[in-house]
Amino acid sequence: MGKIAVCPGSFDPLTYGHLDIITRGAKVFNEIRVVVLNNSSKNPLFTAAERVELIKEATKHLPNVQVDTFSGLLIDYAKSVGASAIIRGLRAVSDFEYEMQITSMNRVLDENIETFFIMTNNQYSFLSSSIVKEVAKYKGDISELVPQIVEEKLKEKFMEGASN
């Protein structure tokens, strides 16, 4: 397609489901901007800077992926980097209604930026950052759910919490 696409999310933490969407998007677009959005309605475990570093480490094998952070409207960020597309991952039918609302609003804000939905790989369809954090908190095995660097950082975070 020869275009820039934005792949937004909170990525708290990055999972293999996220990485699946980013990797597949990187095969279609010349450049992927993974953007960590600061969502004021969420209480993240990792800071935005920590999430950016984790994503950079996990995507370093993808030369056309850049990682950034942004507060505000996604459409404003997309315009600021010259993106013509937004990539959103869908896990299940339950994601569709929410994603449809966001896509419709973005279309009102700028009809020139298209949204592309990528269905996640079936093996990750149940996976969410919330589930990963819950399993990691109780020392469950998350090695098949997140990149190794993310697993290590989750263990560190929950060890810090246990000592406080």
UniProtKB/TrEMBL annotation:
Sites marked Transition state stabilizer: H18
Ranges in a coiled coil: none
Binding positions for substrate per the UniProt entry: S10, K42, L74, R88
Pfam family, one: CTP_transf_like
Pathway of action: Cofactor biosynthesis; coenzyme A biosynthesis; CoA from (R)-pantothenate: step 4/5
InterPro entries attached to this UniProt entry: Cyt_trans-like, PPAT, Rossmann-like_a/b/a_fold
Domain spans labelled Cytidyltransferase-like: 6-134
EC number: 2.7.7.3
Binding-site residues for ATP, renumbered to this chain: S10, F11, H18, G89, L90, R91, E99, Y124, S125, F126, L127, S128, S129, S130
GO molecular function: ATP binding; pantetheine-phosphate adenylyltransferase activity
Residues of the signal peptide: none
Catalysed transformations (reactions): (R)-4'-phosphopantetheine + ATP + H(+) = 3'-dephospho-CoA + diphosphate
UniProt record, GO biological process: coenzyme A biosynthetic process
Location of this chain's protein in the cell: Cytoplasm
Keywords: ATP-binding, Coenzyme A biosynthesis, Cytoplasm, Magnesium, Nucleotide-binding, Nucleotidyltransferase, Transferase
The protein's assembly and partners: Homohexamer.
Reported function: Reversibly transfers an adenylyl group from ATP to 4'-phosphopantetheine, yielding dephospho-CoA (dPCoA) and pyrophosphate.
The family this protein is said to belong to: Belongs to the bacterial CoaD family.
Name by which UniProt lists this protein: Phosphopantetheine adenylyltransferase
Source species: Bacillus coahuilensis p1.1.43
